[in-house]
């Protein structure tokens, strides 16, 4: 069973617009933040989608890259130019932080990258405001910890540079799949490299503040049992 502190869950990729709140089987309270940008109007083959209002796909940012056949690049992990981060995504996530006041973040895939960019933005605000951890823009405070699953370093060079400048310091558990073809482990390690403290960096008690947990599968959140469950629970209990 997870500790009872609140987590803010950033779901990855394109998701349904309808978010839900409530308790889960493990006893933790998860506040689900749906993506703040409307999704593209194209399917992978370039055909117009005919979706009812409220069922439209969403993404954490827009991208403008095209494939060789002239259709919009279907994968955010392969896009090189992002749009909407500073105008929509980051304000949306800061608002969610201020509203739910979670102890930590749990994020997956494209959502994991969005969470990393949020942490970088909050870190910059802390430096600007003299190192204060609370009361950032819009009342959003830096969470105590983050769990980032299948996250990738931004391919947009300007966005990536901005994240490195932010240099998040929040304790973070990164999770990656050894057979993940969408976000290979090297992309996750590249994202980890943006943190001010290197992987394996230790605090006073000798515990790692930035750590990578590898599972044998692909691009997914591991089943909530066994070693993965023990690793996550131990990590959360250390920082809640």
Keywords:
240 residues, alpha/beta, Rossmann fold, seven-stranded mixed β-sheet, 5 helices, 28% helix, globular
Written description of the protein model:
By secondary structure, the protein is an alpha/beta fold. The protein has one domain: Rossmann fold. Helices cover 28% and strands 18% of the residues. It is built from 5 helices and 11 strands, in the order E-E-E-E-E-E-E-H-E-H-E-H-E-H-E-H. The protein has helices spanning 85-100, 110-128, 157-166, 185-192, 226-239, and strands at residues 7-10, 21-23, 29-33, 37-38, 58-59, 62-63, 82-83, 104-108, 145-149, 172-177, 210-215. The strands form 3 sheets. The chain has a 7-stranded mixed beta sheet with strand order 2-3-1-8-9-10-11, with helices on both faces. Helix 1 packs across helix 2 (110-128) and helix 2 crosses helix 3. The chain is globular and about 50 Å long. It starts with 6 loop residues before the first strand and ends with a helix. 35% of the residues are buried.
């Amino acid at each position: 069973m997870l500790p009872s502190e609140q987590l803010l869950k950033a779901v990855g990729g394109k998701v349904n617009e309808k978010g839900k709140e409530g308790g889960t089987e493990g006893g933790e309270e998860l506040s689900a933040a749906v993506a703040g940008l409307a999704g593209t109007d194209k399917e992978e083959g370039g055909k117009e989608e005919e979706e009812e209002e409220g069922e439209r796909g969403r993404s954490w940012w827009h991208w403008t890259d095209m494939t060789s056949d002239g259709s919009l690049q279907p994968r955010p992990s392969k896009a090189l130019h992002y749009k909407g981060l500073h105008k929509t995504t980051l304000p949306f996530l800061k608002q969610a932080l201020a509203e739910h006041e979670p102890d930590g973040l749990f994020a997956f895939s494209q959502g994991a990258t969005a969470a990393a960019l949020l942490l970088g933005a909050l870190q910059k605000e802390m430096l600007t405001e003299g190192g204060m951890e609370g009361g950032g823009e819009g009342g959003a405070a830096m969470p105590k910890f983050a769990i980032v699953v299948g996250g990738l370093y931004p391919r947009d060079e300007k966005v990536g540079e901005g994240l490195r400048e932010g240099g998040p310091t929040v304790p973070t558990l990164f999770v990656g799949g050894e057979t993940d073809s969408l976000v290979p482990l090297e992309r996750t390690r590249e994202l980890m490299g943006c943190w001010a403290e290197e992987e394996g960096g230790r605090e006073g008690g000798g515990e790692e503040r930035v750590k990578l947990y590898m599972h044998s599968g692909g691009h997914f959140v591991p089943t909530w049992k066994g070693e993965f469950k023990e690793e996550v629970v131990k990590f959360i209990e250390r920082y809640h």
